[in-house]
Amino acid sequence: MKETGREAATRVAMEAIQQSGFAPQDIGYTFVSNCFGMAEHQGHVGPLINNGLGIPDTPSVTLESACSSSSAALHEAFVHVAGGFADAALVVGVEKLSHLDTLTATSYFAIAADYPFETKNGATFPGLYATLANAYRQAFPTKDEMFGAIAVKNHANAARNPHAHFQKEISMETYLASPMIATPLRLYDCCPFSDGAAAVVVAAKEFVKKPVTEPLVFRASARSGSVTDMQDRPDLLGLPATRTAGAKAFRQAKMEPKDVNFLEVHDCFTIAEVMALEDLGFFPKGTGAKESAEGVTARDGKLPVNPSGGLKAKGHPVAATGASQVVEIFEQVNGLAKGREVPKSETALAHNVGATGGSCSVHIFSRR
Ligand SMILES: CC(C)(COP(=O)(O)OP(=O)(O)OC[C@H]1O[C@@H](n2cnc3c(N)ncnc32)[C@H](O)[C@@H]1OP(=O)(O)O)[C@@H](O)C(=O)NCCC(=O)NCCS
Questions:
Q1: Do 104 and 247 meet the contact criterion of CB atoms below 8 Å apart?
Q2: 187: Cβ below 6 Å to ligand 1?
Q3: pLDDT tens track, the chain, 368 positions
Q4: What 8-state DSSP symbol labels residue 190?
Q5: Mutate to test the pocket of ligand 1, among 193, 314, 318 (most ligand atoms within 8 A of CB)
Q6: Nearest of 304, 313, 286, 17 to residue 142 by alpha carbon
Q7: 80 catalytic residue (yes or no)
Q8: Cβ pair 30, 89 in contact under 8 A
Q9: Alpha helices in 125-194 (DSSP H)
Q10: Is the pTM of this model over 0.70?
Q11: Exposure string (b/e) for 182-209, b if CB count within 10 Å is 16 or more?
Q12: Would residue 67 show up in a list of annotated catalytic residues for this protein?
């Protein structure tokens, strides 16, 4: 990304405000998420964005919840608007760190793990998710190609997404030949270090004026925490925070998994996509990889998953990821996802995880 994080954040914020039919002055609160401002020597970015939007007096706050930061910001904006504290609120997620080398970026990211127990002992996110993948593969014997199918599918979707980090397809042969990063995770099982910014406007129904495009309706906005360290969890076959946040979201929406047409899930590593689909209740435990390999989660399958290309290939600009999932859902619902449309887009679910699941958000949206 050539722009600075702050420039990109201000640009996408202005685009979102214009799409929503509001003026910047209508925004009552700005919720910003940004995890690694130190990579650009820039913190306290909320007031800078508001200054760039011409609304210096509007309050702002910067939220950090690791990789789930902008879905946390979205939840806070929802609560703020639903509580009547603002008619409209702005959510902006931004990250810029691709100029860092892999070692530095890996060390930055590792601060989201538990320092004394994990990071200090050499744990990194590829290593922690490899532990989860190994546990899963011991419990449910899974062929390499089953994980490979997820990478191939997400790259195929990203190849049709102009916002994506990697706009290229890969073959199963390329997947299988890619270097091992943390056994059993290969290069193409991993998300990259991405730059990016994404913005969403949240408004009370009565306040919506003349939006340029159809707004999404919130059906659920749920968050959960969980036991952070893996050694303290009862099992390593899924993420407890996904199970809790998913169950809460379905209760709020009075829906079941069968009511959802497509999903954007947190696939920081291919194993994470499998666990998400099982923990959210879309597939029984131990069957998610097999279902994916059989094409059920393809863009034209029965349950399209990550039509954007997911974190794997659309990219993972950490604090912008949760908001970018909502942008994909918005584009699908409004017919703006040209060339990567899912067959049915009435109702969609967004799932965003912080670290190895210490935090998680699940949002459900419907067409108005
Ligand atoms: C997988 C990983 C270790 C690769 O890093 P690396 O080996 O240093 O790779 P480089 O940055 O040197 O890039 C080498 C090539 O691989 C590509 N590449 C890098 N990461 C990639 C990925 N995840 N998927 C596909 N291609 C990738 C680069 O674009 C580059 O391609 P090019 O040679 O055509 O330009 C790194 O991307 C990583 O750690 N990802 C995980 C990030 C993470 O933990 N996020 C938090 C999740 S909770």
A1: no
A2: yes
A3: 899 999 999 999 999 999 999 999 999 999 999 999 999 999 999 999 999 999 999 999 999 999 999 999 999 999 999 999 999 999 999 999 999 999 999 999 999 999 999 999 999 999 999 999 999 999 998 999 999 999 999 999 999 999 999 999 999 999 999 999 999 999 999 999 999 999 999 999 999 988 889 999 999 999 999 999 999 999 999 999 999 999 999 999 999 999 999 999 999 999 999 999 999 999 999 999 999 999 999 999 999 999 999 999 999 999 999 999 999 999 999 999 999 999 999 999 999 999 999 999 999 999 98
A4: B
A5: 193
A6: 286
A7: no
A8: yes
A9: 125-139, 144-158, 172-177
A10: yes
A11: bebbbbbbbbbbbbbbbbbbbbeeeebe
A12: yes
Contact 50, 56 (CB under 8 A): yes
Ligand 1 atom 22: residue of nearest CA:
192
Task: Find out whether the beta carbon of 152 lies less than 6 Å from any atom of ligand 1.
Answer: no
Q: Which domains are seen in the chain, by residue range?
A: 5-99+195-207 (3.40.47.10)
